[in-house]
Design goal:
The protein is α+β, with helices and mostly antiparallel strands. The chain folds into 3 domains: about 260 residues; about 100 residues, Alpha-Beta Complex (Baseplate Structural Protein Gp11, Chain: A, domain 3), CATH 3.90.1160; about 90 residues, no CATH class. It has 11 helices and 16 strands. Strands 1, 2, 3, 4, 12, 13, 14, 15 and 16 form a 9-stranded mixed β-sheet that branches. Strands 8-9-5-11 form a 4-stranded antiparallel β-sheet. It has a 3-stranded antiparallel β-sheet with strand order 7-6-10, with helices on one face. Strand 6 and strand 7 form a beta hairpin. It is elongated. This is Putative tail protein.
Amino acid sequence: MNMSTITVPGYSVSDRIPRVAFALLLGQGSRTPAQSPLDILLVGPRSYDEATGLTPLGVADDNEPQRIYSVDDAIDYWGQKSPIVRMAARVLSSYPGATLWGCSCTKGAGTRGSVTMTVAGTATAAGSVILGVGDKSFEIPVASGASAATVGAAIEAALDADDALPCYPDYAIGVLTLLNPWYGPEQGYELAVLQNVAGITLGSPTPAAGTVACLWDAAFTAAFGGVPSIDYVVPATDVVATLTSGATCLKAQIASALAPTTGLLCAAVVGNTDDTAAGAATMTAAWDDGGTDYSETGYWSQVVWARNYGAEPWCVAAAVAGLRVQAEESSPQLNWIGLQGGPIVPSMVAPWSASDAVLSDSVLNAALLAGVTPIKYEWDVEKSHVVLSITAKHQIGSVANATMLENTNVPAVCRAVSYGIRTSLALAFSGFAIVSDVDGEAPDDLPSRTTSPQLVKEFLVATMKTDYEARAWVKKVEAHRDVTGVEQDSDNPSRLLYELPMDVPRWVTQIVGVHRALGGTG
């Protein structure tokens, strides 16, 4: 999709990246991000009719942004089953005060994706079929003696009763088909469709349902290496750094048949490319410089996915866009990391029971782009403000491509502020901290709402020393004081440019702090 075709007043093309983009304007005083205005732009495909797939639903034209005041607005604009509708619901629930925009992108050139499931046999005992579609879980009761036709029709009825379900279910002659309601414009609008989320092996009878078997079609099964399931052996809040064998890793599966021009439907979660476990929930694990053996350090993205793998990545991205600005001013790190156990999705489906082979770095890195959440912090103190534009980059598989946060959309002189994940994550919040502290510490003879490059520099240096050097996230802060630069932009007097060339320990730069839905542009 060409983002330059989308025009939103007050936004440049660089502000808008597919799926989720937002700008946060921070004012003077002790205002926290949660009290500040937040603009969010949601981008995704519109939905099409079930019968032919030719009629676009909703009244809004593609590439024309619309203000969203409620979920009903999104439904009217792009149809009930559009990803934008589900993203809007996530944002409005996590951050009701957001100024929300939506925009549908140009229809993809491919065909709509679909998967089929064969229902066969007769139930010899009462039981249930458990089906997970996205972050929704359905349990369909099966009576003893029920035929395959009865079970199939019951599954269709249960799925069809959910108007917001992002697929069209249809059962006929022993085959249940789930049809994608949109045409995928690019990778990133996948939908996880999983069977037996309670942990029953795929293809076997469901619990106590006798001989009734629900089998996915061969193409779908093959795309997942034969068993479309994920093994999460520990809860996300209790991950340890000792699970090093392939059988206990947080692994990823992406359907190999998913191409950018195809309507995307079946996919699972993205975790780690390496045959290792997720790292501990601390920053104490050392990084192995061997380049391939990360036996004691994994990715925080794994931890978040372990709790939210059933949710579509674009929904997680939208929810996080609202949640991320509500971190408490006093402890942003704890709150950001706390997202792993927070209300990113309202309900979690149970883990799967089998693991599978790891896919290639290139496939996984492409999938990591699914939940782009770039952020632009703008600290506004009348005509003097600092712009922090932080984008999370999530690439995996090598030391050079380790997931990290990087400042973007700022002059090249600021590229030195490319800290490791945790450090840069905290730095993103220093924008509002500067506003509060500088205003509070300015000399009495300075007018209100006034700052200066020197005040900003001193605050940044002090913050790095007290908050980051003390935690060993950076080092030699004082030695770099003289080369720490904050100056007024000659081309834009209302912008302060800064350079913080602090040394960063290698182990810090390699630890991931956020899930891919919190960002990812490369």
